[in-house]
Amino acid sequence: MSHTSDGPHVIIIGAGLGGLAMAIKLKRMGFTNFTVVEKASEVGGTWRDNVYPGCSSDSFIHFYSLSTDLNPNWAHSLAFQPEIQEYVLQVALKNDLYSNIIFNRKVISAQWDMRTQRYDIITEERNGTLVPMTAAILVSAIGLLEVPKFPEVPGISRFRGETFHSARWDTLVSLTGKRVAVIGSGPSATQFVPIISEDPTVNVTQYCRSRSWILAPARVEYSTIQKWLLRHVPFYLKAFRWFCFIWAENLYFAIFGNHSMNQVVEQQVKAYMMEATPAEYIDQVIPVDPNHKVGCKRVIFDTNYLASLARPNMSLVWDPIESITEDGSGAFDVIIYGTGYVVDNYPINIKGIDQSVAEYYRDHGGPTAYLGTTLPGFPNFFTICGANTATGYTSLVFAEEVQVQYIAQMIKPVISGDILSAEVTAEATDAYNRDIQNRLSGFIWSKCYSWYRTGNTGKIHGLFPGSMILFWWWLRRPNWAHYKVVTVSGWEPRRSVYRTLGAVILGCLGVGSVAYFGWT
Ligand SMILES: Cc1cc2nc3c(=O)[nH]c(=O)nc-3n(C[C@H](O)[C@H](O)[C@H](O)COP(=O)(O)OP(=O)(O)OC[C@H]3O[C@@H](n4cnc5c(N)ncnc54)[C@H](O)[C@@H]3O)c2cc1C
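Structure tokens predicted for FAD/NAD(P)-binding domain-containing protein (520 residues):
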């Protein structure tokens, strides 16, 4: 693929796993005229920022890693943050990506110019200098759980003690001998609370709003033999990755695919929680709302959280926080927010033909996209980890790689100069969203409170309504009939006999798997 300095330029916003996956794909296509713009000073995204004690993946790491860069040396099945961050650094080095990344540069805004068929982009350096850039193709890889969210409690900024969000853990603050208020009880808090409360001088009061289903621990340490086999036995590493994929897909079918199976899983999780929770907390932590099924929120594997509640320096408070005073009502030295992320809106002012992404989302009841990847009115703009692409049970990196394959097919004719732009039609987007919202209405998520929904109770914008096999199937190839294309010279998408044959074979395999694993 040709590359000239004035040929189409691709800008990828964000150097997390999603942005790097896109960059690797472009390089493998032989295309190097791209720039990754990253506001921080290193790659890694989630795994660079979340340095709280005990931070780890909750997906099996052999599947929660890039298919292009398998790693036989993972220490645990659910990897800890330092190891994942090290992996991301190695991926960037190995694929020689650093020369394509601009660090400490934040994308502030972008505007599609119909005449030039380019995005005019404004970026900002750390010192406030604004730097304009242009790109024919703009790929947003800004993640989903990136902007820390704080609760709307009066007086939150008045507190004069140490305070930080779990996603921006202040490693300079020692908790020893301190009275610590933890606000929130989601996945991050359940990971760091048992670690910080290990020190008996740290007095932890955890403010909880909602209960979570907590599954039995899933972390195992890989033995030396297992790692040796993964390193040396041909195909074993790939086969093991497939095993992790299938295991997670089974989790999907057990939790979401079938109401009776969900009941069985719930009984098992309840039995585990009854056994692991100290008696005085059983009535407080086990969910009782019949609409709050296992899987309503992202699956949490126990990391010794339930047992840690028995520690004398741990207590839970379920009353809502009315306000925060300067001295934390004389009760706290440190407040740690484990209150999640802003996920309802799009944080960059990207304007397409006639509106911004944020306005488009607002007009559609929250984040909305076609296949989670393209938006009508935004030619040549792609969202990795866009609306309705998360899963709640398996690796988001898989969904992102599926999107990357799709985007690569979409941008190939732009890069080769056959077309100038492609824009998904509003009709295709609306039909797609009617379909997925109709499917989602039958899932357990439609009855419970979670960040998967706009304002926690509105439209489900976070999740894909099906297994990842279906997601892959839908995104395996673009349907060009759903796109308006500005061509240079009467370009037509190529149809390959082999591709059609391949699709039929894969279709049969997909139907076979569905028949084998069951559907609803
Ligand atoms: C603690 C934690 C644990 C998780 N564990 C799992 C798990 O086990 N399994 C799973 O599937 N998912 C998990 N997730 C979700 C996780 O966020 C995604 O799996 C994955 O990291 C997303 O990668 P990403 O590259 O899309 O986004 P991110 O990792 O969020 O990276 C986005 C990047 O974009 C950059 N950026 C944002 N805005 C701008 C801007 N305006 N200009 C320039 N750069 C910008 C950010 O600095 C960041 O580097 C977890 C999330 C958290 C917070």
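The longest strand covers residues 105-113.
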